[in-house]
Amino acid sequence: MSGPAVARSARRPLDEGARPTDSRRRVTLAAATTAHAIAPASVECGVDRVELAPGASVLPRFAAPIDALLREGVEAITASAPFRHMQTPGGFTMAVAMTNFGPLGWVTDKRGYRYATLDPDSGLPWPALPEAFRALAVRAARAAGFGDFEPDACLVNRYVPGARLSLHRDADERDFGQPIVSVSLGLPATFLFGGAKRSDPTVRVPLEHGDVVVWGGDARMRYHGVLALKDGVDPLFGRQRINLTFRKAG
């Protein structure tokens, strides 16, 4: 299930914390403790693909070959649109720090959840979506069976050890016919993939650096979340996990 070995950048981690304590280890999806069985890996167009449910797949290590380029892009965006902890409509501060690329950016505050063309902190347009990021999302969607995906929003989430994301579904987009493409970078995480109701059982999916999850079609409105991030140090991203979530929002 692992992709080919990928050379690592010699640059220091994005989060310049302690040195890595051990080498990266792959945890196979099949070995995860899940509430539902996960289908065995299959190959489509030369890409490893693990089906979670009809319309939902994991592409192991799909983004790893351009991880240094993705790191540079995240550095560039946060220079002009820094990470921030947004507030929910109920007044709670989110544990996960966020920012955005692209024509539209997802925001939340006491007024509600929505997409906005301007960064509410600066009043300026969100940074442009780099072509390499857009192309990665399009290729991943195609590999998962969604051939006409064209993202106009990329939500960037930063998890530090202990941060988690509760079960939710992405329901602020105009076109639910378009998939969600989620890229995991840095520390390993456990992705929760549920059903049509918040109370439905969830599958626990271990995600490693470079893994991409794509869901759409019948799976588009399923609940999902992330368990509390375990501590560690990634060779490239340091003591954090970066998640890029590509969407067609407008």
- The CATH superfamily turns out to be Alpha-ketoglutarate-dependent dioxygenase AlkB-like
Proportion of residues in extended strands:
25-35%
Question: Regions with pLDDT < 50 over 5+ consecutive residues?
Answer: 1-13, 16-28, 30-44
* Mean of all residue-level pLDDT scores: 86
How many beta strands in the DSSP annotation? 14
Q: What is the H-and-E element order?
A: EEEHEEEHEEEEEEEE
Write down the Rg: 17 Å
Summary?
The chain has 250 residues and is mainly beta. Strand 5 and strand 6 form a beta hairpin.
What key attributes describe this structure?
eight-stranded antiparallel beta sheet; mainly beta; 250 residues; globular; Jelly Rolls; four-stranded antiparallel beta sheet
Notes on the structure:
With 250 residues, the protein is mainly beta. It is 11% helix and 29% strand. The strands form 3 sheets. The chain has an 8-stranded antiparallel sheet with strand order 1-2-3-12-9-14-7-4, with helices on one face. Strands 8-13-10-11 form a 4-stranded antiparallel sheet, with no helix packed on it.
Helix and strand arrangement:
Blueprint (H helix, E strand, L loop, with lengths): L40 E4 L2 E7 L2 E4 L7 H14 L16 E5 L3 E5 L2 E5 L14 H13 L9 E7 L5 E4 L11 E7 L2 E5 L9 E5 L4 E4 L8 E3 L14 E7 L3
Antiparallel strand pairs: 1-2, 2-3, 3-12, 4-7, 5-6, 7-14, 8-13, 9-12, 9-14, 10-11, 10-13
